[in-house]
Amino acid sequence: MSGFAIWPPPTSTVSPATLAREMMALGQATLSPPAFPDDAARGTGQPVIVVPGFLAPDMPTGRLRDFLLRQNFASMAWTGGINLGPMRRVMAALRDQICETADRAGRPVSLVGISLGGTIARQAAKTCPGSLARVITVVSPIRMPVVTPLAPLAQAAALLWDAEEVRNLAAIAEPPPVPLTAIISRDDGIIERAASWPDAHAQVEVVEVGGAHMSICTSPEVQRIIADRLARA
């Protein structure tokens, strides 16, 4: 699956230099994250599963989940552990978690996926639309191959993926059968912006923001957008 991700050419907007900038932004956001927005929408206990990004465990999404709990959404971590990509057992576990959570709550679930987590969320939504209210993706690649300075790591992880899930990625740009909000950063230093821009569709909304890819979940603007769309669901 070396075609899943490729090293940035000289003309790319991402590079080792932008990766270094991203790491600095992540460090700053980890040590001193911005305050939660006070004017964000509140929920009514809607269940929300947050899917982490590439090579990330649940810890980096903790602040976003804390914010959603604060706003009265029933946010929870996914059960897939470290996100190595669309492995068969991971996809099956996410589908089970969606269905079981919806049954337990008595209402549809929303998915919030960060980076590759959003790519996975889009795919999972196509298999259990009856249990889902909405999908929100945040700086999530849907155009393959993805141009990124993380290409060597992505190519190595892709060796673990199942052939069926790899084939499914070829159609990942097709929208899921539920409302989708795609949050895209104009300042993304990990993937080229075009890689996360979906085609126009009646159920697809694109919201462009500023901010680093690796720290975007700490952005009050992004938190406000996510809370607003979840409240609508």
Structural features:
Rossmann fold; alpha/beta; about 230 residues; globular; about 35% helix
> What are the secondary-structure elements, in order, as H or E?
EHEHEHEHEEHHEEH
CATH T-level fold name: Rossmann fold
Strand order of the largest sheet: 3-2-4-5-7-8
Mean pLDDT across residues: 93
Q: What's the alpha carbon Rg, rounded to whole Å?
A: 16 Å
Total individual domains? 1
The CATH fourth-level homologous superfamily: Alpha/Beta hydrolase fold, catalytic domain
Strand content: 15-25%
Characterize the overall form: globular
Structural commentary:
With 233 residues, this protein is an alpha/beta fold. The protein has one domain: Rossmann fold (3-Layer(aba) Sandwich). It is built from seven helices and eight strands. The strands form two sheets. Strands 3-2-4-5-7-8 form a six-stranded parallel sheet. A two-stranded parallel ribbon has the order 1-6. It is globular. The N and C termini lie far apart (36 Å).
What is this entry, summarized?
With about 230 residues, this protein is of the alpha/beta class. The protein is built from seven helices and eight strands, in the order βαβαβαβαββααββα.
Topology:
Blueprint: E1 5-6, H1 16-31, E2 47-51, H2 62-70, E3 74-77, H3 88-105, E4 109-114, H4 116-125, E5 132-138, E6 146-147, H5 151-158, H6 163-169, E7 180-185, E8 204-209, H7 220-232
Parallel strand pairs: 1-6, 2-3, 2-4, 4-5, 5-7, 7-8
